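Morning. Coffee machine broken again, so started the prediction first thing and wrote up yesterday's gels while waiting. Chain of 203 residues, entered below exactly as on the submission form.
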Amino acid sequence: MKLTISLLAFTAKLLSGASLRLTEGFAPDPAQRVYFANHTSHLDALVLWASLPREVREVTRPVAAKDYWDQGPVRRYIGKTFNAILIDRTEIKVHQSPIDLMIQEMGEKYSIILFPEGSRNTEEEMGDFKSGLYYLAKKRPDLELVPVYIENLNRVLPRGEFLPVPLLSCITIGLPIYLEKGENSKAFLRRAREAVRSLKEPD
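Came back before lunch.
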């Protein structure tokens, strides 16, 4: 399995041409974190995961849509290989919300990769963040919330295409943020969105 994971990570980085850029003061390590990023491509989770150091990948689980990654043997195999937490967006159960499922699957060991916009956004400007990140931070205030900006992956795998087009992309990881005492959902989500947006390289 470890050989398969290494091969999957290598292939994802090769096809995307992804480079990793770290903000000064941040070093990826196996500490438990929430990596939250903009979302423009089905490759986002895979390429971000693949760009992390091996020891970090081993304890990092992407949160992904079950209706996409549970469709067909190839996607199911990839989702299982990178240990994705699959969220059913069509049947949200009251007694087990997506946030509760994430917290349960994280335990005290795993970090996760999360896309607060929800669905993919192909517009130039990032969409508003949904409330999930806020409730996750509220229930697990100990977690580091690490902003990530993913650039150019929407051109590597354009919407509606099955095969990726080899291009260069960039993964930029910023400094962690936390939910501040007394901060409401609207203010926190606006600050979290700005933390991601500010990592974009100037045109």
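The radius of gyration is 16 Å. Going to sketch it on the whiteboard this afternoon.
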